Structures are given as structure tokens and as C-alpha cells.
Amino acid sequence: MPTRAVRLNGSEVTADYESAGTGTSQASEPLLYWLRDRLDQHGPRFGCGIAQCGACTVLLDGAATRSCVRQMHTVADEADIRTLDGLAAPGGEPHPLQRAFTALQAAQCGFCANGLIMGSLAWLESRIAAGNNAVPTEQEIKDFLSGASPDNTRNYLCRCGTHTRIVAAVGAAAKEMIG
């Protein structure tokens, strides 16, 4: 059984993964299953299994990645993976996105929260890294979450209907992150 060594939420971890085939016909278990089943990460969730809903989103080397379709053999050794499980600061202080989602009750059932928080985190961090220190407008946040933004072509689904609170939470967290 092959093994992968990565940096998960700031810690070096190593775990086996299921693999089959070789060369161009190689296949392996999804990153989502590896994280949940072997490394006890329960933030990323299985939603659709076809990279459409975002519930499985993790940050892989800083980029929002749909872990339900990313096969383990394509994840490089020493890759940096961040999940919702490790987002809080040392000592347990919640991340600004976690605080905003809680304070504004942005997640009714909570199933979508992982994807919305992790996707928004990657988006906001990439904006800040590019030197864009403007708090995104409500329309920019809506465009990002719907996949209509030039810097995001994938949507994030919430079936409970808390969209206005989600947009407000991303905006509030952005103010704090940029602040």
C-alpha cells in the first residue's frame, strides 16, 4: 500500500492510501476519504462526489480543492493541506471566518459550512497575497460563492437558504482579516 507524507494543519503526518493500476490507468482513493478515514479530519464532508457542491473543500498548497475528486496519487509528498479541523489558532481561538459564521448564524444545518469557510478562506487569502486589501463588496462575495467570479468558476451550495447571512459572514470576516 503506498504512503503519503504531508503537512496537515501545520503538522507532519504520514498515512497509507489505497491504490490500483499503474501509469496512465492509475487510480487511488479520494483525498476526502484519506483525510476522513485515516487522519480523523471531519470538517470536509462528502456532498455530491462530483466536485459540484463544495462540501469537501480543503486547501491544498493554498488552493481551494474539491477533495472528493482529487485522487491521493496526485497529491505530492510534502503537500500542505489545511482543513476546517485545523483552522482555529493554537489555543483554540476560532478563525475570523469561523467566528463570523457563528455570530451571524450563517449555517443553519452546517453541512455546507466547511466548503463555504474553506473556499472563502482561499479566496480572501489569495486576494490579500495579491495586494488587494479592499474588503470585497457584497456583489463580489455573491459572485465568488456562485462561481460567477473571474477568480472562481466553482460554486458553493447551501440548501438551507441562509445565503444573506453567509454573504454577511464572509464580509465580516474579510474586514477582520484585512483590518
TrEMBL record:
Chain intervals for the UniProt region annotation (Disordered): 1-22
Species: Actinacidiphila acididurans
Protein name: (2Fe-2S)-binding protein
Database matches in SUPFAM superfamilies: 2Fe-2S ferredoxin-like, CO dehydrogenase ISP C-domain like
Keyword Ribonucleoprotein recorded: no
UniProt cross-references to Gene3D superfamilies, sorted A to Z: 3.10.20.30, [2Fe-2S]-binding domain
The entry's keywords: 2Fe-2S, Iron, Iron-sulfur, Metal-binding
Location of the [2Fe-2S]-binding domain: 83-170
